[in-house]
Structure prediction request, 740 residues.
Amino acid sequence: MKKINLNSRSLFALPYVIYMTIFVVIPLFMLLGYAFFGDGSFSFAEVSAFFTDSSQWATVGRSLRIALTAALACILIGYPLAYAIAKIKSQTVQYMVLMGLVAPMWINGLLRTIALKDLATLMGVPNGETLLTLGLIIDYLPFMLMPIYLVITGIPKSYTEVSADLGASPFITFFKVTLPLSMSGIISGFLMVFTPAVSTYYMSEYLGNQSTFMIGEQLNTMFTKDNKSGAAVIALVLLVLVGISVFLANQVSRIGNNKKGGIA
Amino acid sequence: MAKFTGEKIIELKNIVKIYDKEKVVDDVSLSIKKGDFVTILGPSGCGKTTLLRMIAGFEKPTEGTIYLEGVDVTNIPPYKRNINTVFQKYALFPHLNVFNNIAYGLKLKTVPDANSKKGYRLLSQQEITDKVNRALKMVDLEDYGHRDIDSLSGGQQQRIAIARAIVNEPKVLLLDEPLSALDLKMRKEMQIELRRLHKELGITFIFVTHDQEEAMTMSDTIVVMHDGEIQQVGTPKKIYDEPQNAYTADFIGESNIISGKMIRDKVVEFFGYKFPCLDKGFKANEPVDVVVRPEDVEINPTKPQFEGVVMNSVFKGTFYDLTIVLDDYELSVKDTKTYPIGEKVKMAIEPDGIHVMPKEALTNEYKTVITGENTISIGDTDFEFTPAKGETFAKGDQVIATINFDKIELTDDENEGQISGNITDMIYKGKYYQVKIWLDNDTALIVDTPYDWDADDRVGLIIKKEDIKVRHDEKD
Prediction:
């Protein structure tokens, strides 16, 4: 007699499959639908409109540049900071410092941005790329800090001890052991900063000006004009950009660390 | 301490290490001869790894000095010491392949070079490659250079860790329980391998282990450690034949430890018989521990000294493991012949088979305070005691409570006891077991118990008030 195997382990995947279908697969098809079937029949009109408009390309390029600058700055600030915190002897003090750095995230992002804008006005800093980049760095630094901190604290002490045992000074040990082994933290931190930064909307709205028009704002413009097809094309472009950056980041991670792995 | 005639490579002088107020290493002095294979042997927590880490330079001693070839290196960081370590869990770099793991130290090494302005230079790529390949050949893993660390078995990783250390040609190689993660067969192979490497390289090996058999088969010299102190230093044979105290005797190999009495020089009494022995220098009638190895008891000798009844006999391949009962003492004896169970046998022990050692302690001397009317604190709990006539105590007085080892009762259920604690060291003394129990406030009591407990067992303790004798702490 045949039995329907309801106890099969694959059954546990069901909620996830349903979730993914409703929130990822269907919206993705809707995006494709809007982009290619905007006026009822299949057409490349919206897509070609985007790709032939040089101002669109400029917006994409600008978004990439600003997000990249912010992400790299976050690495330069976040890594030494995470390293210093990880080296604090008392675990309690470590958590307290981390808490202090992460706590601002409990405040609504929009509020933080407006506060930053007011602060900048008070100090006489005008809107523009500098303020916008600064805002992105301040806002996303915790996303860089946490993964790097976690990776550094996860490196067994024996590795740095072996390095010292084999004749490496603490300075050399850092560059030959700690840094390569914390590469995966840097990569995930980079992606966690770069991905939201490249598509930010309210940041550029409040801290930027005409010359910092970013892809997120472009998306907003499309929506306010009720141009769903145009918005869908931009959303797809963003999707591809993020996909490419994840791929590239994982490639870098492989070079830095010859063990397999990486993230995402 | 053993006398060394050869050149000293490492000398430890009065090393003390304190962690969180706890003395992990307590006044250790030790000389290590150049080219020796020295094993530091002891149970976990005896301070042996801490001692090794201080020699490597990962820890600084709280007190004392470490000399490497006569030079004080106490405050020299590990990367400036010509010593390499093989770690317990190998700690191979996961981001480097086998070749680069082994080459790690070589790439940092400088050699004197008259042609260079600085007077020294780094090793050339060719020199590094040659050295790495030679090291790989030495540990039987040629052609493994390109392999990833995670593609290696535990045994192979162990060999790579050894190669990575010896490739630097250190003056001393430290090995921190390097074989403990391997299975038995692999461990035996690596023991032979390490002996061979030691012979070929001629460098001093300091090996840390808790496995007494490993220590016996591999070392030139064994250092027995317990509770942060060195118990004995000597060749494996010397430590086995002439253990300095009951602890060493019990830890190194099987032995009968019998309570006895030293009648006079060269005569000791145990089992109710007098035996000639070689020991002297004890007080008349001083209580002693007598150690007799199972193979030193002769059955049906020409001149019998005492007798007992065979209770058990187990064939162990090349000999029989016999249990012979006298009164209520169970004597363990090894013999090539077996005897019927229940048969009475006559026995003798040659004078050189008897090892007499002073009893470490006869009774617990527990330092504490008076907490109320005729109560003292033991392990944070109040105990009633019967004061001796004429003695008066006031609350807060510093006192010493004396409790005999056999006057403390142990219970399986810790809640049945007045206090509870964890069993640590256990020594079988024939009639009974002697165990050390750590109470929850980090004080210890020694207890003689008829039952066989396991280390780390949690037990309850019951002490009758008439068995607690209290006197004022004279020092106060």
